[in-house]
Amino acid sequence: MLEFYKHVFDSTYDGLCIFDADGxxxxxxxxxxxxxxxxxxxxxxxxxxxxxxxxxxxxSVSQAVVKYKKPTTQVVNIRGTDVLLTGSPIKNxxxxxxxxxxxxxxxxxxxxxxxxxxxxxxLKMKHHDRDNMKxxxxxxxxxxxxxxxxxxxxxxxxxxxxxQVDTTVLIHGESGTGKEVLLNYIHRLSKRENQPLIKVNxxxxxxxxxxxxxxxxxxxxxxxxxxxxxxxxxxxADGGTIFLDEIGDMPLDLQVKLxxxxxxxxxxxxxxxKSIKINVRVVSATNxxxxxxxxxxxxxxxxxxxxxxxxxxxxxxxxxxxxxxxLAFHFMQKTNKKYGLTKRFADDTIHLFEDYEWPGNIRxxxxxxxxxxxxxxxxxxxxxxxxFLNSSKGNPHQRSLKKILQDLEKKIILENLKEYKxxxxxxxxxxxxxxxxxxxxxxxxxxxxTKIASx
Length: 455
What we know:
Blueprint: H1 2-11, E1 15-20, E2 25-28, H2 30-36, H3 40-43, H4 48-54, H5 61-68, E3 72-78, E4 81-91, E5 97-106, H6 107-111, H7 113-125, H8 150-162, E6 169-172, H9 179-189, E7 197-201, H10 207-215, E8 216-217, E9 230-231, H11 233-236, E10 241-245, H12 252-264, E11 266-267, E12 276-277, E13 281-286, H13 290-296, H14 301-307, E14 310-313, H15 321-339, E15 344-345, H16 349-355, H17 361-375, E16 380-381, H18 401-420, H19 423-430, H20 434-448
Parallel strand pairs: 6-13, 6-14, 7-10, 10-13, 15-16
Antiparallel strand pairs: 1-2, 1-5, 3-4, 4-5, 8-9, 11-12
């Protein structure tokens, strides 16, 4: 019976989690993990006070329930996502609160609910099969993978499908977008999961050594060679997956040999005479335009077509705004755990993260957060600590501090105006006078040439 209730707990679409009266996490279902960007191991056994200190949440509904001894509903920001939490107390026979149950709803999904209901009715009227009516596609997500944006969730959905077959994959994307993360995801979901995953950076190995690294050599094949010979990386990957990163930097003469491997799935060591059969899946990646390289004559057209059977393009972080806040909180937590710190983001700092272009993508963000955490003395990371808040001169990805703050102020004001409808209520919420708010709104109208309806 206990197993049945656990299945029901994990099957609900709404997020659910349970705290004890002291604020320690007892259980969280899969939907709760998805909505809050938490893993079960991060939640169970940890105290809500620690989440407040880290800045993972801005207020605690479970503490409010215990304090006021009644159900409480609040909008809470959890790792950059606004969620609607309803906490309900569980009492013993003496009327004492022993646990608190939280119902978790993603506000963005609530706003879409009416649209989703209309779509669902339309699909039913067209007699679509029920299995094809899933508006929210569930995909496997593992620790370390942050996928809140529709763009990246679509990438993972494609990855989950192609993981089941051995076809060749070519991953495109700017540096730092997560190409290797996608590779690991595909390999983990494939039938080769327990077999080797060999990663090769074609740009990091000198061209005169790359051939021997990939295909190996027999003893005495060249001066300085190991007297016993050496198997290449393709042989080491036998049964598993080999990842050819920066494939656009592979020399032309070596591209011919790689093409033969992809056609015949056999290699010949340098200095060897016999062919060795291999069973590998080949995934390659590049941040270059291979079609352009083909036109320039620096990349073989036949190899391009062989590699490009399943092309996947990972969009840059600036086009995945929904991923920015969860990634920032993920990297802050990772850094805190690594160095035993308690750093957190101050209010509205994350808004500035979302406003930055991130030319180095996820890698730039991870490195920046680690640098901030270990070099800044105070625990709260302020907007003044962010190095990209400087002059945009010489860097098209950066804007002046004044412009960023103006855009941020406009964003916050218009979001609140949309929610509270009137300038009086909006001004009260923002803590400014109604006349000041109206002046700012008129300035926005002049700047963008568009009339704001609430004026």
